[in-house]
Amino acid sequence: MRFLIISILVTILFFANLFFGAVNISPEEVTASLLGIGNLSDTVRFIVIESRLPQAITALLAGAGLAVAGLLMQTSFRNPLAGPSVLGISSGASLGVAIVSLLLGGTLSWGSLSWTGNAAIILGALVGSLSIMGILLLLSTRLKNHLMLLIVGMLTGYLTSSVVSLLSSMATAGSLQGFVFWGMGTFSNVSLSKLPIFSGLTLVGLAMALLLAKPLNILLLGDNYARNLGLNLNHVRNILLLSTGLLTAIITAYCGPVAFIGLAMPHVARLIFRSDNHWKLIPASMLCGAGVCLGCNLLSVIPDTVIPINALTPIVGVPVILYVILRRR
Amino acid sequence: MKISFSLSLIVALSLLASCGGGNASSSSASQSRGDAREMPMSHARLIKISQRGSITEVEIRNPWDTATLLRSYWLVPRDSVVENIPNDISVIRTPVKKSVIFTGVHAALVNELGHGECLSGICDVDYVSDTSLKTYIKKGVITDCGNYQTPNIEKIISLDPEVILLSPYEGNSVSPKLATLGIPIVECADYMESTPLGRAEWIKFYGRLIGEGQRADSLFREVENKYQKLKESVSVAKTKPTVLFDRIYGNAWYVPEKSSTTSRFITDAGGRNPFDYLEKSGSTPLSSEEVLLKAGNADYWLIRHAGENISYKSLASDNPVYPRFKPYKDGKIYTCNTTQTGVFDQAAFHPELLLEELVAILHPEVSDSKYQNRYYFQLEK
User: How many CB atoms lie within 10 A of CB B364?
Assistant: First the structure.
């Protein structure tokens, strides 16, 4: 029942994102462009199909992915304040973007290939975040427990942010602008042509997360108990890293470091479903994350101005976290 | 309306003057120095210059709260003696022989007025576009005083300047450490003027600082004449092409509002800003949908950038919205590398150069066919 209500809410928000935007397009025109019928102006069709639709799908998937990544981290570290960023993967993305836009002047070349603009930024973020994920995977075979992984992740985060501040202090105003705007987060960077690759990879990450539902339920009982039940902890940890890493890397690369969704949405899911069962929590977090991101995206394009996504997500995220902290007292 | 405004201004000013009872000594001092002769300013709104005997009195209005003053200065010739200086007045001995100028644009102006030798230090040397200044910095004649936000105070002290010129920004105009040095600080709020000529008129003030009042006045007259002539030249043009500026950053496209300098330049160059329904004087972030709807049919698209490679192909891969714009289809995109061309520096006190270029782009029918572009170059398809 609760699932049904939330699913309906998410669906409504999704369509609201298609019907409402910065400019007024009548519901008939939106429907006609979605169905590909009628005699519409090229601009209207473009706005609905190539601007609003990919943006709504991106918000949906990014929200779902970040919330799940947060949930996985919170369960595996047994820490309610963990989020997708604790592993340092999103700081890896920042580092990649900082190197591309601040050090290399926004152009990335490899032999005869060269990327500029958004493509260079996305590539930089991907290389940065995936390398941090690779390092973590390598280390995870040597590290005995999750706590060590957490510490390594946080240290990587500090290290990358020190390099980022060094690069920013030396950068020119123009290139700094590009970097700062990437950090504000947006769901509008994924165009219709890039959508298949973005959604494909995100869906793989989400599917891997679903596979983890059973082992995560067992992990809740404690590492030793899980081992006794025949669970291969290393194996689980690697899938966990891969899933979280992939989701965080892809979403951060395309949307920038979207704040608070991963941290707050698993708590919202727990509050609504009052359960620790991951078969429920994983899809519930996905729906909550998707819903909130769609809502923020809708609010970000109020008429005559645009608000950055990261200015909106904490407004939702902070009260939730405060509530959780106060309740745990 | 205007009359009642100026009346209330007079009332307010006289009230202010009567409130300053503690400054009785200063008012008597100014009386004994004779009457002030105010210099007419034809475009600048934030600065007032008056001559009282040998002393030039300068008042800079607070751009963020125009009812108050940001700073007041007395420019006093080196050999004269002044007494009874009110507390809120900074006294600058002129002509200034040694100065630290934070911004390349003001340093370039001082150099243009023929006094490059009084530049001891500059901040943010990476942004200096003036070639002769670049050589001075390279040779070490002008010291690099570090970053604008966190200047190297020790270097500044060691240069022993008589005055520091910096651009103030809202809320935090002067760093507390700089303020304690006891060196007069000139707050160059010229960039807050709402018209290109208003900003350029500040030349008169900067010229007086280095003892080149006459030369500065004639330089400004020249700038003003050229600017007005260009503006008149397009008044006969039959069309008013619409001009779109820049591109998307993050999730927003920052567009110029009606009273912004960018918008004034477009209007003065005989063009139209598609966003002049936005009344204010800065820029507004809009979504790409809205920009497409309001400016999709623009005639020209001018993109300012910091040096990255821009091509029709890279624009299309950056965002599928770009190829939807008419200038993209018609091949009427112009790009300007702001760091290399020094457009911001030069347009500050030589707005006629930028206007000439914009007129050449928007109205080739009225401009000199031999004109060579300085800032904006047509992007090759």
Answer: 11
Q: What is the dihedral of CA A183, A185, A190, A191, to 10 degrees?
A: -100
What number of C-beta contacts closer than 8 Å exist between A and B?
112
Mean pLDDT over all residues of chain A? 86
Inspect the interface and report whether the beta carbons of B284 and A174 lie closer than 8 Å.
no
Share of chain A above pLDDT 90, in %: 30
- Kindly report the three-state secondary structure assignment for every residue of chain B: CHHHHHHHHHHHHHHHHHHCHHHHHHHHHHHHCCCCEECCCCCCCCEEEEEECCEEEEEEECCCCCCCEEEEEEEEECCCCCCCCCCCEEEEEECCCCEEECCHHHHHHHHHCCCHHHEEEECCHHHCCCHHHHHHHHHCCCEECECCCCECHHHHHHHCCCEEEECCCCCCCCCHHHHCCCCCEEECHHHHCCCHHHHHCCHHHHHHHCCCHHHHHHHHHHHHHHHHHHHHHCCCCCCCCEEEECCEECCEEEEECCCCHHHHHHHHCCCECCCCCCCCCCEEEECHHHHHHHHCCCCEEEEEECCCCCCHHHHHHHCCCHHHCHHHHHCCEEEEEHHHHCHHHHHHHCHHHHHHHHHHHHCCCCCCCCCCCCCCEECCC
The separation between the first and the last C-alpha atoms of chain A, rounded to the nearest angstrom, is 31
Contacting residues of A for B321, CB less than 8 Å apart: 46, 50-51
Q: What is the pLDDT of residues A186-196, one digit of tens each?
A: 898 888 988 99
Render pLDDT for A137-187 as a digit per residue (tens, 0 to 9): 788 777 767 777 788 888 888 888 899 889 888 877 777 877 888 888 889
- B285 to chain A, any CB pair closer than 8 A? The answer is yes
Model pLDDT, residue A40: 82
B117 C-beta neighbours (distance < 10 Å), count: 14
Q: What is the DSSP letter of A14?
A: H
